[in-house]
Design a protein that fits this description.
This protein is an alpha+beta fold and about 700 residues long. Among the domains are: about 5-130 and about 145-170 and about 220-290, no CATH class; about 375-485 and about 495-510, Immunoglobulin-like (Sandwich), CATH 2.60.40; about 515-570 and about 595-630 and about 640-670, Immunoglobulin-like (Sandwich). Helices cover about 35% and strands about 20% of the residues. It contains 17 helices and 25 strands. Strands 1, 3, 6, 7, 10, 11 and 12 form a seven-stranded mixed beta sheet that branches. Strands 13, 15, 17, 18, 19 and 21 form a six-stranded antiparallel beta sheet that branches. A hairpin with a 5-residue loop joins β24 (about 675-685) and β25 (about 690-699). The longest helix is centred in the first third of the chain and has 28 residues, at about 60-85. The termini are far apart. InterPro entries: TRAPPC10/Trs130. This is Trafficking protein particle complex II-specific subunit 130 homolog.
Length: about 700
């Protein structure tokens, strides 16, 4: 009817259902009849439906469902095929991966009425199987990783097979279990009360049995004998020569195993269940790795690791990632190998021993200090994370530098030395605007866990800033981290987030007035006399600690540096609340508040620390110079005075702030007058032309 999708769906459901029916009658059926029927039924369905499916005009959902069903058929066939292979001794050829373990450890053993016996003249086959068992050993993994192998059987095949023959034994069941050790060789630890010890020893060492009735009364079967018996029994059950060929040797088994695995993976990739396909790619990669095809193995392992990492399946990732790292090391893929080592270090610490984690770190450090052919920046976001101070953000005024403390967590098992460490901040309002990288001084040694690192921040533009990225260098290797920690211990669920943090760590205020300097007296000063000029220095919510006041006298004005400068506290509600009387400047100031004398050198005055956050009055002596001789005036020719004549300019510059980065400049004008004024008038005129003048001198 040209409906292959429906045939595949109904066929798969029938295979699963009828397999359960066969299980109810398994003890009356030939050995492994259920497994063999499922395999042949799945292969028949795959062949018939795939040839009928032409991929024509069909709904996308139907197409995806068809390939999903094909993948399921391949997977079911693959699991049963591995079970048969394990029964006949090919278990050492099967990768002990999580997916294979999940399939086989939940798949029950065949349940025949009695387990098949060893056929006559099979000693050579038993010895060959015995040799395979003894020579089998797990592949040594990179970094000498020791992991408990995953099981491929629901229970011990040795005990299961012998248990199904126990009813023919002369002993009881407990004697049978005690007579079988873990190696698969018969070794009685208890003697049957019905047999003498000498007779039993003779039977135990007499070699394989030669008939079905002689073996149970002799001893339990060894594992090699169980494999040989199962293989001969399968030959009686399987009628398809091609099927039996696929079980005739490890090479033939591997070829069919690869075919089934690839068929399942390819169909899953074309369906909705792409993750199933990626997982099976890992099984294909294991075959590639076994045969030295490391390039293809690495490509498949990369897909598997990417899936496990994205899903957060760290235990599965810990099983596959070392294989990827080994492929990359063999292929001399230094960048990929480094990334894999970092990823191994970032996995949960309980998945590897301390020695193994230290081996990962040693490889990172070794490569970082070596001459890499193609050095690339290494992303360590999963291993080195950072967070701002939980306290309120650092607030700076415009133009101020500062020091920012950042908590950096290291996932390395040992101390690691960084040649450099820099932090980049991003503007809170826009991700495109940010500060240049600020560098931490000197080399840094990160200890495992929390580290507090300080960064010197140069003056920045006004705005709010959040953490951007952490960069640095290990040896010759540059690294980058954009993992923002939640300021908690490494083992918390919220240890790391790749989202841009929302809480600012730095706020730079907009420009504002930080200090104000006004003259206390600017007029009624005497020319050519020592005069005291007062400056009111008022900080505006900013510390003037360490501030230096520069006083630059203009032309015809001299600062008397031989005199000490006097600084006194200024109270707006005290005697200085009203304008200071001009007479105040004729002598040294006196005040009931705090007064301190400081020297002036080259026009510079260093403000005392106590004056850093209070309003002060700075008195300094000056002398206005005027060399012109005062001229008298008369009512007939009055002298015109200009305010500019007595004007003198003083340039002020205050450097303050933590690094004297803040500058306040102002120029003030002060007015000086002559200390006396001469005026004349004619009081009388004589006949001889003589004039009598009267002169008045006003001070």
């Amino acid at each position: 009817m040209s409906r292959p999708v429906e045939v595949a769906a109904r066929g798969y459901a029938f295979v699963v259902s009828f397999s359960k029916t066969l299980a109810l009658h398994e003890n009356a059926l030939p050995f492994c009849f259920r497994e063999v029927w499922v395999i042949t039924a799945c292969l028949g369905l795959i062949k018939s439906t795939s040839t009928q499916y032409d991929g024509g005009v069909v709904a996308i959902d139907s197409e995806k469902e068809f390939y999903r069903l094909q993948g399921d058929l391949y997977s079911l066939c693959r699991a049963k095929f591995m079970r048969l292979a394990y029964l006949i001794g090919y278990g050492v050829e099967i990768e002990k991966s999580p997916v294979n373990s999940a399939s086989l450890s939940m798949l029950s053993w065949p349940k025949p009425a009695t387990w098949p016996s060893i056929p006559p003249d099979s000693s050579a086959e038993v010895m060959a199987k015995e040799k395979t068992i003894l020579q089998a050993k797990a592949r040594e993994k990179l970094f000498d990783i020791q992991r408990k192998p995953l099981p491929l059987e629901p229970s011990s095949l040795l005990r299961e097979a012998n248990r199904r023959r126990a009813f023919l034994s002369v002993g009881n069941l407990s004697e049978l279990y005690d007579s079988v050790d873990g190696s698969g060789l018969g070794a009685h630890s208890k003697l049957s009360p019905n047999k003498s010890s000498s007779n039993l020893m003779t039977r135990t060492m007499s070699g394989p049995a030669t008939s079905e009735t002689s073996l149970p009364v002799d001893r339990p079967m060894r594992l090699s004998e169980i494999h040989v018996a199962a293989e001969h029994a399968l030959k009686q059950t399987i009628s398809d020569p091609d099927f039996m060929t696929s079980l005739s040797s490890p090479e033939e088994f591997e070829s069919r195993y690869m075919e089934l695995t690839k068929g399942a993976a390819d169909n899953y990739h074309r369906s909705w269940w792409k993750r199933h396909g990626v997982v099976l790619d890992g099984e294909i990669a294991a075959i590639f790795f076994k045969h030295g095809n490391y390039d293809l193995a690495a490509k498949s392992y990369e897909k598997v690791c990417a899936l496990y990492s994205a899903e957060g399946w760290e235990e599965l990732l810990a099983d596959v990632l070392p294989d990827l790292a080994e492929c990359q090391k063999i292929l001399k893929d230094e960048a990929g190998y480094l990334a894999s080592c970092v990823k191994l270090l970032s996995l949960e610490s309980s998945l590897f021993s301390s020695k193994e984690r230290q081996a990962f770190q040693s490889e990172v450090v070794r490569l970082a200090h070596s001459e890499m052919r193609h050095p690339v920046p290494l992303d360590v976001s999963s291993l080195i994370t950072f967070a701002g101070n939980p306290a309120p953000p650092l607030e700076l005024c415009d133009g101020d530098p500062g020091t920012l403390s950042v908590a950096v967590w290291s996932g390395f098992p040992d101390d690691i030395t960084l040649e450099s460490l820099s932090l980049r901040l991003s503007a809170f309002s826009s991700a495109d605007e940010g500060l240049k990288a600020i560098r931490s001084t000197d080399a840094r040694v990160l200890v495992p866990g929390r580290n507090i690192i300080t960064f010197d921040i140069p003056p920045q533009k006004p705005g709010s800033y959040v953490l951007g990225a952490l960069t640095g260098q290990i040896g010759k290797l540059s690294f980058r981290s954009h993992g923002f920690s939640q300021d908690g211990p490494v083992d918390t669920d919220e240890f790391m987030s790749f989202e841009k943090p929302t809480r600012p760590v730095l706020k730079v205020r907009k420009p504002r007035a930080l200090v104000d300097i006004t003259p206390a007296v600017s007029s009624a000063l005497l020319m050519n006399e020592l005069q005291w000029i007062g400056l009111i220095v008022k900080p505006i919510d900013y510390s003037l600690k360490g501030g230096i006041l520069h006083i630059d006298a203009g032309a015809e004005l001299k600062i008397e540096e031989s005199q000490m400068i006097e600084i006194e506290s200024y109270r707006s509600d005290g005697e200085h609340s009203s304008p200071i009387d001009a007479s105040k400047v004729l002598s040294r100031p006196t005040d009931t508040g705090r007064v301190e004398k400081v020297p002036i050198e080259n026009g510079k005055i260093k403000l005392p620390d106590w004056a850093s956050d209070v309003t002060t009055l700075v008195w300094f002596p000056v002398r206005a110079i005027n060399d012109t001789v005062p001229k008298g005036t008369s009512p007939a020719s009055p002298q015109k005075h200009s305010i500019v004549d007595g004007m003198r300019m003083i340039a002020l510059k205050l450097e303050f702030g933590a690094f004297h980065n803040q500058i306040f400049e102002r120029t003030i004008a002060v007015h000086f007058t002559n200390p006396f004024h001469v005026s004349t008038r004619v009081v009388d005129k004589c006949n001889d032309g003589t004039l009598l003048l009267q002169g008045n001198i006003a001070f």
